[in-house]
Structures are given as structure tokens and as C-alpha cells.
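2024-03-11 09:14:02 DEBUG pipeline.ingest accepted 1 chain
2024-03-11 09:14:02 DEBUG pipeline.ingest length=297
2024-03-11 09:14:03 DEBUG pipeline.predict start
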Amino acid sequence: MRILVLGSTGYLGAHVAERLRALPGTLVLTGGRSPAADLDVDLARVGPEQLAKTLAPAAPDTVINCAGATGGDAVTLAEVNTRGPAVLCAALRAAAPAARLVHLGSAAEYGPGIPDAPVTEAAATRPVGPYGATKLAGTVTVTTSGLDAVVLRVGNPVGAGAPPTGLPGRIAALLREAGSDPEAVLRLGDLSAHRDFVDVRDVARAALLAATAPGPLPPVLNIGGGRAVPVRDLVRTLAHLAGFRGRIEETTAGSARSALVSWQCSDIGAAEEALGWRPAHSLGEALLALWEGGRTP
């Protein structure tokens, strides 16, 4: 089986590629802007015809699209999260119409949740900012493409290599900077929001299962931890793992998205039914992997 992982040098893509390489009888091809990738692919810039010419000789049985932007202005987000999937779908229809496409979406596509009511894949999508809106547009493109495609709507991934552009990675970076100084102060925004965190290793396993599952799959599957966790608890757990001896100061100020989306949790029952998938790692294990993974030898 030939599986092409796009965005293979990114946070999620690297974990997905690593997981796939352990699968017997699988040839893993990587695609991205890195010179180390097998295929030079920049979904934000390449045209459908050129991408089709690149994909045809690779002849993938499955393409897993992990390429995406989580930060930047609206133009950057649209180029990667919306234009990218559209170009990929057009190229696959021309070069590998029988290939399965596994596209990584985001729980941000749902927008604000209702406390104690995990959202199913049938829930209304009401993204509150450019990131969620551009990811939703990408999802619509994939699910209406006519391809054998599935979108994995991923919650808030946590684990080794988490970038500082996301909350867990940013908190870990701040704790490393603070060290064991008892006078250190972490000044953070409002931590009262609830989020659905999922170990990045579980995301990678879900991608593998979606890539290799027989028959057609539902168009969208939620991949999350299945419970809403106070962001404050995540910060305190990570601080404990870091041996932080200073003080955490929380203000009422915070990101616009945190204010608008105070509660988020995905119902993951459909993924269990379709893929036999459930999270295998706890949030504590994910945070330990995040902290241990960033330690210097």
C-alpha cells in the first residue's frame, strides 16, 4: 500500500508519518515544502494541473492531508486551509481518482459549544474566526469532491513537539523559560474555557485507521478526547510536571476565540463505530510526552 502524507514535517503530519512507517507492507511517501520530502508540494501555491503531474507517478492508494495553517492573517489561512484542499481534490480527480483522501479538519469548525452537550458530526457549524471558517471551507470542498474521502475533525492535539503557536506548546515554552525560579510569575489570560484535548499519538492512529479501513467511510468523523477539560487544569498539570515553583497569575483578558468559545467537546462515538477508534492516552500522558519531548539531553 502506498500512502502519501502531505504536510509531513508539521506537528500532526510528522506523527502521522511516523505511525504509518511502523505499518508492515506500507510505503510511506512524504510531501511538503521541506527539501527532505519525497514530493515537493506547496498546496498554497501549486496549481491543480501541476499537482496532478506530481501525483500521477507517485500513484498513491491513499493521501493523508495534514497540511494546514493555525496562525497568520486571513489570507494565509485561506490559502492553506481552503485553497489547498480544493487544489488537492482537483488534482486527485485527475491523477488518482480511486485514491482515498483523509483530510485533517478541526473542531474549531463547530464554533461555540453548549456545556455538557458534546457535538456530533451532524451539529451546526458556526466558526467564530478566520481559522475555523477556512478549515470549514476546506471540509466542504473535501466532502463534496466526489472522491473516496473522509475528514477527521481533530480537537486540541497535545503531545511531543506541540508548537508554541498552540496553548499547550506555548505554556510548555513559558515553563521552560521560567525553570525552577521560585520568584517566576506566569502571567496568563483567562483560563476558564473548556477544551477537548486529544493526544497527538491518538490522532495519528485515527489517521492510520481511516487510511486503511475497508469500504466507504462517513464524510466527517470527530477525533477528540471526548470530554471537556478546563484549560486551567491543563496549565496546572503541566506546571506540576515541570516542577514549577513560581506563581501563576490569571487575568480576565484573553484571546477573542476563548471569550467566544468557552466550552468545546466532541462526541467521538461515530469514530468508534466506523474505525474502532477511541483515545488510548490520557491527557496526563499527553502532557508528560509534551514536557519530556522538549527536554534537552
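2024-03-11 09:14:41 DEBUG pipeline.report The chain is about 40% helix and 20% strand.
2024-03-11 09:14:41 DEBUG pipeline.predict end
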